[in-house]
Amino acid sequence: MQGYRYNGILRKALLVDIEAARELMIKVELEERFTSHNTLLISQLVDQLLNHLEKITSTD
User: Fold this and answer.
1) CB-based contacts of 24: which residues, under 8 Å, 6+ apart?
2) CA triple 28-33-35, angle to 5 deg
3) Does residue 5 have a pLDDT over 60?
4) Please, which of 26, 36, 51, 57 could form a disulfide with 32 given CB 3.0 to 4.6 Å?
5) DSSP labels for 1-39?
6) Rounded to an integer, what distance in angstroms lies between the CA atom of residue 50 and that of residue 17?
7) Would you state the pLDDT for residue 60?
8) What is the pLDDT of residue 3?
């Protein structure tokens, strides 16, 4: 039961982080360009967060 509660809290935190990173990526993309180093780094972060979310979601 504790694991489920922890995963639920972690899932919500990840969703907030994913949305914030997505918004930052869009902002940087518009200011710099789609293939800028910063845009690519943020995109990789979004991918990592999504992979983590998928991992904890699949264990529920």
Assistant:
1) 42
2) 105
3) yes
4) 36
5) -HHHHHHHHHHHHHHHHHHHHHHHHHHHHHHS-TT-HHH
6) 10
7) 61
8) 59
Res 28 pLDDT > 60:
yes
Please report, as a single letter, which amino acid is at residue 60.
D
Residues 38 and 21: their CA atoms lie apart, in Å, by 12
Tell me which residue of 49, 12, 44 sits closest to 28, measured CA to CA.
Answer: 44
Distance, CA of 48 to CA of 42 (rounded, Å)? 10
DSSP 59: T
CB atoms within 10 A of CB 51: 9
